[in-house]
Design a protein that fits this description.
Strand content: under 5%
Distance between the termini: 27 Å
Helix content: over 70%
Structural class: mainly alpha
């Protein structure tokens, strides 16, 4: 599990991208909940990824 923690941001971004792709494939674009959750997952993934990189950096 500890091996996946540095990649949690990337996993969140990939999950958000899949959520947004599902809205196009399944014609679920009327569902704002799915669109919003995909957006939130991507933004949270970006923030977590940047935070992880800054934490591991020497600077």
């Amino acid at each position: 599990m500890k091996k996946l923690v540095p990649y949690a941001g990337l996993i969140l971004m990939a999950t958000g991208t899949v959520a947004l792709m599902l809205t196009r494939l399944e014609q679920l674009s009327a569902s704002n909940l799915l669109l919003g959750s995909g957006l939130l997952l991507i933004v949270a993934g970006i923030l977590l990824h940047v935070w992880t990189i800054k934490r591991e950096s020497k600077y």
